[in-house]
């Protein structure tokens, strides 16, 4: 019998078949963010105990398109781009726990298996989808600039159904990338028990923090959340316009660090 290696499934004798390398994981990418407000009750129903709605602006939502390139610490994926590149679209709300405000991803779709597996490990409720967004480029007419007048679109389809789309036209540079996704994340890691009726085999509330962003432009936008089929955005936080919400286009860099690393950007808040 050999001892199996690998951070994630499948574990093998060499560990090379694993979907994911061991942390830390590094991300560089471009984000399209649309913020809006909805009925706070629609947000509250997505927050499991012990989380509570944010004390200020509890109905705020961010819908974010992201075009990512990621890698492990040795950067090997960058020379095999199919293992590095993916797109995702996710909805973020705000919540509170133990007197602190957190962000929380309540829906998310991604188009690559390794990104889906990594997200589940991090407490992101990832599902498969088809995600597209306009890419900026500093040259030529086939791409907008991250500058006043630049227009960017994002679309999301799930199970062959278009369920969300947005267009953002930049007006000016902004000091921050919005306020909904500006806090550490409070996520649950759940794994159902193999025994019917038993409590979850894994039940953890964790804190995720990231760092590093680039300049942002904003902010005139229009968005459309479309009628959804079963299991998509059926009871999503529906959009309604309000003053502070807007759109942002930002290139960014993030680093993901596991608890075993010195930076401690992921930590357990509560178990069970």
Salient structural properties:
14 strands, 272 residues, mainly beta, single chain, 11-stranded mixed β-sheet, 3-stranded antiparallel β-sheet
Brief write-up:
With 272 residues, this protein is mostly beta strands.
Compute the gyration radius: what is it?
19 Å
What is the approximate shape? globular
Oligomer state equals: single chain
Find the structural class using helix and strand composition.
mainly beta
The percent of residues in helical segments reads under 10%
Q: What's the SSE pattern? A: EHEEEEHEEEEEEEEE
Account of the protein in words:
- 6% of the residues lie in helices and 44% in strands.
- A hairpin with a 2-residue loop joins β8 and β9 (161-174).
- The strands form two sheets. Strands 1, 2, 3, 4, 5, 6, 7, 8, 9, 12 and 13 form an eleven-stranded mixed beta sheet that branches.
- The protein has 272 residues and is mostly beta strands.
- It starts with 24 loop residues before the first strand and ends with a strand.
- The longest helix has 10 residues, at 113-122.
How are the SSEs ordered, and which strands pair?
Layout: E1 25-37, H1 40-44, E2 52-53, E3 60-71, E4 85-97, E5 100-110, H2 113-122, E6 126-128, E7 130-133, E8 151-158, E9 161-174, E10 185-191, E11 202-208, E12 216-225, E13 247-256, E14 266-271
Parallel strand pairs: 5-6
Antiparallel strand pairs: 1-3, 1-13, 2-4, 3-4, 4-5, 7-8, 8-9, 9-12, 10-11, 11-14, 12-13
């Amino acid at each position: 019998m050999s001892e199996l290696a690998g951070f994630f499934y499948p574990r093998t004798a060499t560990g090379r078949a694993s979907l994911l390398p061991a942390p830390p994981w590094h991300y560089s990418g471009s984000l399209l963010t649309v913020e809006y407000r909805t009925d706070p009750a629609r947000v509250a129903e997505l927050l499991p105990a012990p989380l509570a709605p944010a004390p200020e602006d509890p109905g705020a939502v961010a819908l974010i398109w992201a075009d990512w390139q990621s890698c492990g610490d040795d950067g090997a994926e960058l020379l095999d781009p199919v293992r590095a590149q993916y797109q995702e679209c996710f909805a973020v709300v705000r919540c509170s726990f133990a007197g602190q405000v957190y962000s929380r991803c309540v829906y998310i779709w991604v188009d690559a298996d390794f990104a889906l597996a990594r997200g589940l490990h991090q407490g992101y409720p990832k599902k498969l989808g088809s995600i597209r967004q306009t890419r900026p480029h500093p040259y030529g007419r086939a791409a907008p600039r991250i500058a006043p007048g630049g227009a960017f679109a994002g679309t999301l389809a799930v199970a062959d159904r278009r369920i969300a789309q947005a267009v953002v036209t930049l007006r000016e540079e902004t000091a921050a990338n919005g306020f909904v996704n500006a806090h550490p994340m409070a996520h649950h890691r759940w794994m159902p028990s193999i025994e019917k009726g038993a409590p979850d085999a894994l039940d953890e509330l964790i804190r995720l923090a990231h760092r590093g962003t680039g300049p942002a432009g904003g902010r005139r936008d229009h968005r459309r959340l479309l009628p959804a089929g079963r299991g998509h955005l059926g009871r999503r936080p529906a959009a309604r316009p309000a003053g502070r919400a807007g759109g942002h286009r930002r290139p960014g860099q993030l680093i993901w660090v596991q608890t075993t690393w010195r930076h401690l950007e992921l930590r357990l808040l509560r178990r069970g």
